[in-house]
Amino acid sequence: MTPRVPWTPADVLQILLIWILVVLLGQLAFTVLMPHGPIGPEQVEIDGNKTTLTFFEGGTYEAAGGKGKFKFEQARNQLILEPDAGDPITVKFHGTLRDRIGILLTNLVCLQCSMVALVFLLLRKSKSHWRAAFGPIGRPAFQLWLGPALFGMGFVLPAFGLHYISQTVLAQLGHEPVVQEAVQMVMATEHPVEVGLQVVSVVIMAPIAEELLFRGILYNTIKHTGYPLAGMIISAALFALVHGSLALTLPLFVMGLALAWVYEKSGSIIAPMVMHATFNAINFSLLKLAPIFAEKAG
Fold it and tell me: What is the DSSP-derived secondary structure letter of residue 2?
């Protein structure tokens, strides 16, 4: 059973509003301080082949096959190349290394670290401590660490199955399958600094921040107002929706239910954190290995 929360719903609402403000300010700061657009040499994929283009201020570029103008559309992650000789070409572009690292750092600080900091402020305001609010950390080891890790490993195959079902249903409804932008970035990343930041964000900070928010605060608060089932459903639904992928909504919703169940059975927020981290680590590894396997198969 999960610990009884030491805060009120009003405290939770206040923390959520502050967190949303921090996230918005972080996005605004990134937009203002980080100039958008490629300058210098960048690799892009044209017709399945990686090509190096050198971009210049003023919207021009040069390549081995010629030169021309370009339009950079950050919001849609697209480059429209207009060669001096030939038709315009639209290519996917995930931003420069500078942009991608800036986005990762912004998300780490404003989205994830800020949530952890606000949780500790919530504990301080309610004059409580970690164990009283979220359960024990170390013992029993199997219940809090090994068991949830095995559960996270075991959930990978059902998640793939649910994802397939979602994609099939969406295809029947006329929606084209779209690979999540974050997934594309993980698969395309090669720079060690960017990979390291992705590991910290995906495998460490995302499970900590998201479990504190969705299970530790939202689920537990709604549960202790007298609606445990509603708390489980609402927290799982919000957990699925914030990831911004229609095809992933079903598997993430079921995972949210499973994480709340693990939290309830263990009595500690550490258990769903470990399950979540294990699941993310396996999926991250598979995404990084996918291009290698595809290259060998080809």
Answer: P
Q: For residue 77, name the pLDDT band (cuts at 50, 70, 90).
A: low
* Residue 256 · residue 275 · CB < 8 Å: no
Q: Is the peptide bond before 140 cis (omega within 30 degrees of 0)?
A: yes
* Predicted TM-score (pTM) of this structure: 0.85
Cα torsion angle, 93, 80, 24, 260, sign:
negative
Question: Taking a C-beta distance cutoff of 8 angstroms, is the pair 26, 103 a contact?
Answer: no
Q: In angstroms, rounded to a whole number, what is the distance separating the alpha carbons of residues 193 and 139?
A: 35
Q: 116-126: per-residue pLDDT in tens?
A: 999 999 999 99
In contact, 287 and 210? CB cutoff 8 Å:
no
Domain boundaries, the chain: 40-92, 131-297
Q: How far apart are CA 298 and CA 293, in angstroms?
A: 8
Backbone phi and psi for residue 78, each to the nearest 5 degrees, phi listed first: -130, 145
Nearest to 263 by CA among 173, 144, 156, 117: 144
Q: Assess contact for 104 and 94: CB atoms under 8 A.
A: no
**Are 275 and 148 contacting, i.e. CB atoms less than 8 angstroms apart?**
yes
Backbone angles phi, psi at 60, to 5 degrees: -115, 160
